[in-house]
Amino acid sequence: MIPIAKPQIDETEIQAVSDVLRSGMIAQGQRVADFERAFAEYTGVDHAIAVNSGTAALHAGLLAHGIGPGDEVITSPFSFIATANTIMYTGARPVFSDISSDTFNLDPEQATEKITEKTKAIMPVHLYGHPADMKAYEEIAEDHDLALIEDACQAHGATFNGKKAGSFGTGAFSFYPTKNMTTSEGGMITTNDKEVASRARMVREHGSRQRYLHEMLGYNLRMTDICAAIGIEQLKKLDNYTSARQQNAKKLNEGLRDVEGVTCPSVQEGCSHVFHQYTIRTQDRDDLAAFLREKGIGTGIHYPIPIHLQPYYKELGYSDNLPVAEELSDEVLSLPVHPQVTGEDINFIIDSIKEWGGTR
Fold first, then answer.
1. In the sheet where 163-164 sits, what is the strand order?
2. What gap in Å lies between CA 105 and CA 302, rounded to an integer?
């Protein structure tokens, strides 16, 4: 089976974890601080705050901006559920706007139309590793005095006009095992705002900057030194991982561009796509997925139901008409693109899809 995702773990991560275990300091400690500094430098920001998941990074980032009950946050309906749920955790209301069919990201013009006096933040998602139009979102945030929160959970190292995702506003990254780099479980908040960073650290640590002195309601969102040790080693390899993903994506594009009924992903000018997912479109998605499964090729559907159509959100009264997100949810299919996919695997995937196309 060629899996849709596979974490890259070798002896360097194993040794790093062993060193932490032998040290006796296995909770949040020096390794976390080292990882934060390295990730901040890599992303090009002043501050990075490590937490225990990408969900925690989004949640704490929103709280650090003072988002709360009565507020609205504009975001994409075409993402993992955590994008919207973390807004709900704060007591605010997610407002969904439709997406672009070529990048799968939030459409800036339509998002602008959703702004009201209750809007306090806008949260574009760098879906699949393709950066959102951050020039547009910086302008929107400035013009309307909004917090700019980047859901960069799938976009480690992606760039827009040469600047890395997570460095335009307050970024939130995930280090889940299927991501472009992992800490097993973990997340990171990135920002250039000293006050946002301070509040995020308090949210992470029970509302405390000083032990047993609690200034606000906080949580236990800490990352362990065990996870940070993995992250330090993974970050060293991230650019190589990204290059492998991009090369695999290029080969897939070249091999699949002429297959009838299949639309390959595109990359917008000025963007560096890191291909957390390589996602095609086809109206016969389920048939193709079944065909590839029989061939031993893993696939994924990211995502089969837009957030505004999820049962919980429908119970809350959401009834948005977001035709692009709804259409894409029926057509998208992710193919293996991760660094452990070999050239032989890529050729087999291409040949298999061509064979499927010839039988239609």
1. 163-164, 159-160, 271-272
2. 13
What's the burial of 298, exposed, middle or buried (CB within 10 Å: 0-12/13-18/19+)?
middle
**Average pLDDT of 150-169?**
98
State the Cα–Cα distance between residues 41 and 126, nearest whole angstrom: 20
* 216 shares its domain with 94: yes
194 in a structural domain = yes
- Are residues 76 and 152 both part of a single domain? yes
Model confidence at 173: pLDDT above 80: yes
Nearest to 242 by CA among 167, 152, 337: 337
Q: Are strands 170-174 and 159-160 parallel, antiparallel or unpaired?
A: unpaired
- Residues of the domain holding 222: 11-232
Q: Are residues 116 and 161 in the same domain?
A: yes
Domain count, the chain: 2
Q: Cα 19 to chain center, whole Å? A: 30
- Reference 175, options 154, 149, 150; nearest CA is 154
pLDDT, residue 358, reads 81
The stretch 175-181 carries a mean pLDDT of: 98
Q: Tally Cβ neighbours within 10 Å of residue 258.
A: 10
Structure confidence by residue, pLDDT tens digits, 75-84: 999 999 999 9
Shared domain for 188 and 139, answered yes or no, is yes
- Residue 126: pLDDT band by 50, 70, 90 thresholds? very high
Tell me: do 288 and 339 sit in the same domain: yes
pTM of the model: 0.97
